[in-house]
């Protein structure tokens, strides 16, 4: 037991020594590290000291250089100031010289201007004298020219008055001649109008008598026709439709006229035209009057412009549409649509 305790005590002692040694080793290592760190710090501090001294030397050298430059700059500035002062003095002397020269020039120019003004005054006096003389001469010439122009104007006025009088006399004679011609023409035209009016009245009376005779002849013809034999044939045509009745007219001489429908009987009785009644050659005034009366259904001595084409065809003078339009325009000048016998007869003779 005692040996075991001794062994245990020895083991504890050894363990304690080991722990103490371990702690000493750790302390030694920490001290070593701190020494190394301090040495490094010392080396860095030494380097900084060296660098600081080096920078201090450089700064001192730079300061010396700057001081030298400043001294040189001040020297240059003093030299420039001296040059500026000298330049100012030179400029001042130049200004004074320029001012003196300008004053001399101004005095010279002023004197020249005075001379020019004096010379101009003298020239102006000469010019005014010449102008006065020229005005007097021009006034004299103007008066002479005015007298000459007045004489010419008076001569021209007399000539114009003479020409006006001659023209007025000639115009008066021409006016009287033309007035006489117009009066003579008017009288002749009035006489012709009276003659034509009288002729128109005579023709109207003759037309009225002819129309009365014509109506009487028509009445006699109708009386003869009413006494004739009238035969009416009724029947059917070949196609089965009722045929138009045909009338056979027996004339007063006993002859038989061609068969005509009843609707053409009155037309046959009134188909007496001036062309059938007129003898060979140009129609006479009586033929024209009879033909005109055929279209004057109212018996008033007028016909419609629409009847002019048929009247002219009956008289043997057919016209084209353009010629017919021209004839109507010449006859119906008042555009009433009516044509009197007098107008037609004058146009026919013309």
UniProtKB/TrEMBL annotation:
Coiled-coil segments: 21-224
SUPFAM superfamilies registered for this protein in UniProt: EF-hand
UniProt KW keywords: Calcium, Coiled coil
PROSITE patterns from the UniProt entry: EF_HAND_1
Annotated segments matching region Disordered: 253-283
Residue intervals of the EF-hand domain: 285-347
Keyword Coiled coil annotated: yes
Polar residues bias (residue ranges): 263-272
GO molecular function: calcium ion binding
Superkingdom: Eukaryota
Keyword Thylakoid applies: no
Protein's recorded name: EF-hand domain-containing protein
Record organism: Volvox africanus
Lineage start: Eukaryota, Viridiplantae, Chlorophyta, core chlorophytes, Chlorophyceae
